[in-house]
Amino acid sequence: EQEEPKFTIGFSQCTGDDAWRRDMLRGMQRELAFHPEVTFLYRDAKGNSSKQVDQIKELISTGIDLLIVSPNEAEPITPVVEQAYQQGLPVVVVDRKTASSFYTAYVGGNNYEVGKTAGQYIGALLKGKGKVVEVTGLPTSSPARDRHNGFLEAIHKYPGIHLIQTISGDWEKKIAKQKLTALFDSIKGADLVFAQNEVMALGTYEVWKEKDLTPRVKIVGVDGLAGPFGDIQMVNDQLIDATLLYPTGGEEAIRVAMQILQNKPFTKENILNTAVIDSSNARMIKMQTDKILSQQEDIERQQQRNDDQLKVYKNQQIILYVLSGL
Ligand code: FRU
Question: Which of 47, 133, 134, 268 has CA 20 to 30 A from 255's CA?
């Protein structure tokens, strides 16, 4: 029997504590279950860039064969990733980018496109006229900057749309809520809030609700997460008006990593598409994503069963071996 070559993949995640990143990790684990020859080392930097640099160094020192990284902030994470790449370690960048093109492959959305699509949608929704507030992610992370620039480019085509304020919510619901509440007097006249992710869109909804202002401000978010607490459900329940799909790409990241490790042809830029989810399609998308979620759970159950059976089989082999020596 021929042994498959063994590999170790290290994954440095910028922050692990939200539904979007848990979805990414689950996707990776589902795909990894097809590769029992791979050891997977996971590190969560919990939103701290210098911690992430240390964790990447630690992963490299254990002798990983490939690094997957989602950089918390672009600049601080760039040197360590560049150095690893230049020393010959393959690097797959996911979702957030470094400030350099020294990496082997990228898997994730085109955030400029996400912002631009949001801007075009908002221009049409407001019929070309109105006051808009933008709540951005961490300004030093690449998606926040790219979504902002794409958004500006799109709304500049609408002279009647005024961006009255850009507030940084750092991707966090709590921070977004604090700042929106503190600035409420200057933004309460807004017609629409564009929040750059799901949790900040929910935070925006909650601020307007707490202020008891009806009708609530129009809200457009980003992420398009499935499940009972995801922003697809939020559109369906009319807590927000629309959201832009931003796929997490966990499975794709592992697939590209395996192509690289197995010396197979691969694509350097693997761009996952965006789409608008609003009241016109949310019901249908919810039905489809609910179905996908339950199929994913079936796959995970099946994989667990295979694992259990493999353990039983290995134990039986040991027993047979011991018995044969008697
Ligand atoms: C999750 C998240 C998403 C957002 C992405 C940007 O941690 O904040 O909501 O789309 O990161 O990198």
Answer: 47
